[in-house]
Amino acid sequence: MGERAGIGVGALLGMTAEALEPGRVVFGLTPDPKFANPLGTVHGGVLSTLLDSAMSCAVHTTLPEGAGYTTLELKVNFVRAVPVQGGRLTCEGTTVHVGRRVATAEGRVLDGDGRLVAHGTATCMVFPAVTEQ
Questions:
Q1: Is the dihedral of CA 44, 49, 50, 56 positive or negative?
Q2: What percent of the chain has pLDDT above 90?
Q3: Does domain 8-127 have CATH number 3.10.129.10?
């Protein structure tokens, strides 16, 4: 864990997997100056992406092989500004409910001092595994 790997937005932003277990995912991210908004703090879209990734991946860890999902709704609350040079962020996503067609999850982003900087919820649509006949 904790290694930079993969493809897509996680690799683009430098997210690392710190913990992966059924119903729980922790990702880490060190802000880059490129992530700044016009005020010089980490853009809310980066924090939203971190939350969406952790929460939806937490759902993914509970699904049977071959099943899929997509985020239907994302709600994010920003608690405090995050300095671009403020150090490493961690985001824990956990499932709240996983049903046959809909799953929900919640997440929290903490700064290097353990302070809450953002939290949110996600609703995912679950696609069952396709079985061959």
A1: positive
A2: 84
A3: yes
